[in-house]
Amino acid sequence: MSSIPDLASLHALGAAQQPSYPDAAAVEAAVTTLRTAPPLVFAGECDDLTEKLAAVTRGEAFLLQGGDCAETFAGVTADNVRNKLRVLLQMAVVLTYAAKVPVVKIGRLAGQYAKPRSSDEETRDGVTLPAYRGDAVNGYDFTPESRIPDPQRLVDVYNASAATLNLVRAFTTGGYADLRQVSTWNTDFVRSSPIGQRYEALAGEIQSALDFMAAIGADPDEFHRVDFHSSHEALVLEYEHALTRIDSRTNQPYDVSGHFVWIGERTRQLDGAHVELLSHIRNPIGVKLGPTTSADDAIALASKLNPENTPGRLTFVTRFGAKKIRDGLPELVEKVTAAGLQVAWVCDPMHGNTFTASSGYKTRAFEDVADEVQGFFDVHRQLGTWPGGLHVELTGDDVTECVGGGEELAEMDLGSRYESVCDPRLNRVQSLELAFHVAEMLRS
Ligand code: PEP
Ligand code: MN
């Protein structure tokens, strides 16, 4: 593996969606701080995740990846992190128990702070300001001061991610994720919904299976803890580059800002800086592929990002939209498969299904989300390839950001609890409902 290019050479390749920092010295100071900061994740953990994703690639496991579109610094609270983790654990239990497949769990968390935007500017009531690019870059407040990119925020991202990951590690290994808690993860407001009751029934079955195991003296470690991994879009070069380190054990470079990092739909240029940087790290990585992706594009990306064709190294996250997936996906999957490329195929049913409601809120319909996942399964089933996973934007709270679902959230309800600073997320009931749908798809 050739050496990692320096930051200036990366920028020289052309990097889409980067902040325009007004003060180069301040950027240098932030990068210097980050370069000496301890790793957030260890290389060995990244290798373990690559192994698990190799099982996904082989069709032996299913990936569940989820969390906010954009984390915020204000969202780094025990309640918020626990609620997200809880809904992911509930979904994973539904998928594991109802579909009988091992589930690899990755949070869009502990680093998901930088956002690509379709427009550089935002206009409200005749006032135009630079777009909000995530807490990693600038402030959400609609004032000229707040929207100036501040590189010190990258150090704040590091600290916020460290705090989040610390809590996640405590929750997942310290008893909270113990399978015997499976019922307590179902809080009152979820229990009162039909889908919450369905979960309750499933939790009861698991409980009696566990009681049986305990009675015969079987109590494996797996009942008491879960493996959980962090992920985010590798977007701001300064941050990802400063946290790319040579692992002393293997002498290989890893981006120690998260276990899994991905390249977004807007930054996947083959000769661009993001693809170049991620081609040098050893973490498992993903690339988002939208409906304009040609099979040749995907094959070229795979050749550059995974030249040794290592299973588990590369995940393609398709996000075509419910209306396009059945027509668009087959050719892509067919040609990538025919080229002999080892990739995990994962469905992001969110980003191709966004629309603006009459009330002005950016939203998604639960039915479109479920339909895209169904289309994804149909295509892979037809081709004999493995529908390897689900990548979703969700929250553990009872927000009103996506319409539809069993609770029939309407467009006019969106204002009551719309809290996302970026894209609309499935709320807890919708997330659980989707997990039951996907479990059915996996079983059939
Ligand atoms: C995202 O995952 O929030 C995102 C911006 O996705 P994409 O790159 O697929 O548009
Ligand atoms: Mn998003």
From TrEMBL:
One of its GO terms (molecular function) is 3-deoxy-7-phosphoheptulonate synthase activity. Pathway: Metabolic intermediate biosynthesis; chorismate biosynthesis; chorismate from D-erythrose 4-phosphate and phosphoenolpyruvate: step 1/7. SUPFAM superfamilies: Aldolase. It is an enzyme of class 2 (transferase). The keyword Cell wall biogenesis/degradation does not apply. Its EC number is 2.5.1.54. It catalyses: D-erythrose 4-phosphate + phosphoenolpyruvate + H2O = 7-phospho-2-dehydro-3-deoxy-D-arabino-heptonate + phosphate. Keywords: Amino-acid biosynthesis, Aromatic amino acid biosynthesis, Transferase. The keyword Transferase applies. InterPro entries: Aldolase_TIM, DAHP_synth_2. Belongs to the class-II DAHP synthase family. This is Phospho-2-dehydro-3-deoxyheptonate aldolase. The lineage of its organism: Bacteria, Bacillati, Actinomycetota, Actinomycetes, Propionibacteriales.
